[in-house]
Amino acid sequence: MSKSITELTTLSTQIRRDILRMVHAVNSGHPGGSLGCVEFFVALYGKMLNYQFPFSMDGKNEDHFYLSNGHISPVFYGTLARFGFFPVAELATFRKLNSRLQGHPTTHEHLEGIRMSSGSLGQGLSVGIGVALAKKLNGDKSLVYTLHGDGELQEGQIWEALMFASAKKVDNLIATIDYNGRQIDGDTDDVLSLGDLHAKLEAFGWEVLEEKNGNNLEAVIAILEHAKSKTGNGKPVVIILHTEMGQGVDFMMGSHSWHGKAPNDEQLQKALSQLQLDEVTDY
């Protein structure tokens, strides 16, 4: 059953609570980028992806999603659990010994919803392109979606993949770049500037879309729908999605310092107090 914008907005807040509680419980993980990408994940799984249960690795005639910047696994796990891929209670095992919810998603753990092990940055676009080409060969009309960090674009493999996808007209692929301007060592512009990213992506032969309000759920749904309308026209599609690292928690926003740091007890309570719901369904 399709959820309303109000329901999806409530779900976004709940997933933000899940993210914070997961990383706090083990004093480990990446809350900043996870909090910034909540609207993307909720829009993707709540409105865009065609998927089926039970989950299968093959996913024939289903849309596929590949998370390339695997360190933001908390938002991925929270989304998958809240959309019914596995029990919400399993979120309590995040990053624990023998858990299926490792710090970076892995396929050998057989966690429903995960089709690619990710953590070594730069690889997700290549995987997505390969799957998109396989779907074309199989006559499968469904789409492939990928997500990448802006800092991840400093990896050379990304640019090889960008060149390949346009040259081979991989037009059943929608890549999204989480453009929050921050990475583990500081602002992206200071570490290694991406320059005019829009112009670079266009020069590589991609259909380039851009959304400045990447933490507005309705705006994210709209840009994803726009991107979908551009598929099948001979070009791969990429969305530059401007988000805020740490979105929803005032002391985590505006800085790279929460890229990979868990909140302490006091900080967790302060953060959760900013993410109030009429009905909290914490695991």
| Tally of DSSP helical segments | 10
Fraction in helix:
25-40%
Shape: globular
Question: Spans with pLDDT under 50 lasting ≥5 residues?
Answer: none
- How many E strands? 7
Mean pLDDT: 97
Class of secondary structure makeup: alpha/beta
Percentage of β-strand residues: 5-15%
Largest sheet: 5 strands, parallel
CA distance, first residue to last residue: 23 Å
Radius of gyration: 18 Å
Describe the structure.
The mean pLDDT is 97. The protein is globular, with a radius of gyration of 18 Å. Helix content is 39%, strand content 11%. The two termini are 23 Å apart. It is α/β, with parallel strands linked by helices and 283 residues long. Helix 3 (38-48) packs parallel to helix 4 (73-82). The strands form 2 sheets. A 5-stranded parallel β-sheet has the order 1-2-3-7-6, sandwiched between helices. A two-stranded antiparallel ribbon has the order 4-5. The protein has 10 helices and 7 strands.
Topology:
Layout: H1 5-26, H2 31-36, H3 38-48, E1 64-67, H4 73-82, H5 124-137, E2 144-149, H6 156-167, E3 173-179, E4 182-183, E5 186-187, H7 188-192, H8 197-203, E6 207-211, H9 217-229, E7 237-242, H10 265-273
Parallel strand pairs: 1-2, 2-3, 3-7, 6-7
Antiparallel strand pairs: 4-5
Helix pairs in contact: 1-3, 1-4, 1-10, 3-4, 3-9, 5-6
